[in-house]
Amino acid sequence: MTQPNPQLLANIRIVLARTSHPGNIGAAARAMKTMGLSQLVLVDPAVFPNSQADAMASGAADVLANARVCATLAEALADTHLALGVSARRRDIVAEVLMPGEAAQRLLAEAQAAPVALVFGNETSGLSNEELSLCQGLVTIAANPEYSSLNLAAAVQVLCYELRRVWLAQDSWPQPELDAASGEELEKFYLHLETALAELEFLNPGSPGKLLQKLRRLFSRTRLAKEEVNILRGILTAAQEAKAGGTRARNS
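Given the sequence above, the corresponding C-alpha cells read:
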C-alpha cells in the first residue's frame, strides 16, 4: 500500500465564518491538528487573537499562529475550486447535500489539483444564505434529529476525522472531472451576470435577490469550468454590446 499524499490534506482549508467565541477557534485548531490538517482561515471573527483561543488550542498553537484572517467569505474562498458548507439544515440555495464520508471523497479528489474548503458558520446562526451561495454543496452530519445541535469544534472534529479516515484508506484518487473555475472567477461571473441582466431589463436592479439565488443554484449544480465561465461572460458581453448599440441607434 502506498503512503497517502500529505499534499492533499495541505490543500484542504477549514474556514470558520463569524465565530463569536475565541475558545471555539482554539478547540477547532486542536481538532484539525489531531487529524493532520493545518490550513485554518477565519472570516470576520468577533475576537482573535485571544488568550482563550490559545488555551483551548493546547498543542495546536502553530495552527492558530498560521491562521489567515479574512474580512469576507468570498475572500477566503477566492482561490478554491470547491467549497462545501457544513450545516444541520438543508437549504434550498445549495444544490447538492453530502454526508461527511461523501464530502471527504469529493474534497480529497479535488485537492489533487487546487485548494478546497470546508466552511463552518457562526455558533448560533450557522451559515447564512448569502454564505451558502458561495459554496458548491452542503455537508450535513447525521445527528439525533431530536437534538442535532453540535458544538462548532465538535463538528470540525467529525469532518476532519472523516477526511483523515478516507485519506488513509485510499491509495489513489480519480482525477477531477474538469478544470473548475475558482471562487473568485465565479463571483466575477455572477457580478457580470447581475449587471448584464439589469442592463437588458430582464432583472429588477432594486430587488435581484430571488432570481440570482436560483441562477447561482443552477450553475452550482453544473460545476462550471474556467472555459465555460469565459464563454458565458463572452455571451453576456455580446448581449450588453448589442443592447447598447440598439439604444444608440434609437437615440440618434
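The first strand starts at residue 12 and ends at 17. Try to locate this feature in the C-alpha cell string yourself.
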